[in-house]
């Protein structure tokens, strides 16, 4: 099971801001744990591990899923790190989060699992479904579905809507216009360190 059920603020204190995991902010600045107060120079391995953990916790994926996506990204021509981020950004749960239809990725995942989301006139209940340019995302015609999403939309969203997505708020119809660009990825990390981490495996 890839879903993380533990304390989220603890992870945020350790890894930094993870908008996909939680919107809450910790008042404490030091990393969690009794050794969090000790300032020492991190090793090269720990820097790479930290970047990889940011990716895992933000997108809510397991180690196995991340490894599978790394292998997939390596087969595509171009920068492996950027392609990996594009694969993760185009997941259905993340797309709903970026559209502002859910406050976090776990909330978006719940919408998908409970069959509230329709892609190209077909109910999709798989969170890892990869959205493609031209996909039309709508909400199932049910009062409960609309009520949940309208409540979620009251939360302040991330910055502006990425340029590869468009949303009609009155009808709750969204369209994927293309593949996300690197500068629109809402997570601050160095993807090259993640590729380096997995190159040793």
UniProtKB/TrEMBL annotation:
A GO CC term assigned to this protein in UniProt: chloroplast
Cross-referenced Pfam families: Ribosomal_S4, S4
InterPro entries in alphabetical order: Ribosomal_uS4 (IPR022801), Ribosomal_uS4_bac-type (IPR005709), Ribosomal_uS4_CS (IPR018079), Ribosomal_uS4_N (IPR001912), S4_RNA-bd (IPR002942), S4_RNA-bd_sf (IPR036986)
CDD domains in the record: S4
GO MF entries: rRNA binding; structural constituent of ribosome
All copies of domain Small ribosomal subunit protein uS4 N-terminal, residue ranges: 3-89
Highest rank taxon of the organism: Eukaryota
Entry keyword annotation includes Transport: no
Record-stated family: Belongs to the universal ribosomal protein uS4 family.
Task performed by this protein: With S5 and S12 plays an important role in translational accuracy. One of the primary rRNA binding proteins, it binds directly to 16S rRNA where it nucleates assembly of the body of the 30S subunit.
Stated name of the protein: Small ribosomal subunit protein uS4c
Organism: Gredgaria maugeana
Organism placement in taxonomy: Eukaryota, Rhodophyta, Florideophyceae, Rhodymeniophycidae, Ceramiales
């Amino acid at each position: 099971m890839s879903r993380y059920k533990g304390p989220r603020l603890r992870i945020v204190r350790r890894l930094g801001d993870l908008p996909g995991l939680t919107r809450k902010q910790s008042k404490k600045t030091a990393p969690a744990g009794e050794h969090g107060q000790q300032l020492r120079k991190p090793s090269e391995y720990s820097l790479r591990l930290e970047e990889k953990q940011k990716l895992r916790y933000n997108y809510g994926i397991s180690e196995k899923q991340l490894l599978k996506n790394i292998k997939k990204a390596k087969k595509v021509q171009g920068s492996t790190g950027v392609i990996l981020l594009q694969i993760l950004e185009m997941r259905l749960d993340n797309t709903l989060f970026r559209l502002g239809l859910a406050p976090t990725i776990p909330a978006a995942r719940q919408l998908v699992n409970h069959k509230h989301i329709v892609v190209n006139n077909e109910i999709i209940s798989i969170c890892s479904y990869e959205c493609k340019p031209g996909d039309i995302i709508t909400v199932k015609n049910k009062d409960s579905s609309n009520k949940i999403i309208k409540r979620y939309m009251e939360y302040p969203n991330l910055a502006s809507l990425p340029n590869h997505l468009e949303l009609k708020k009155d009808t709750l119809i969204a369209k994927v216009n293309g593949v996300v660009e690197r500068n629109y990825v809402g997570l601050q990390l160095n993807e090259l360190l993640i590729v380096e981490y997995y190159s040793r495996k």
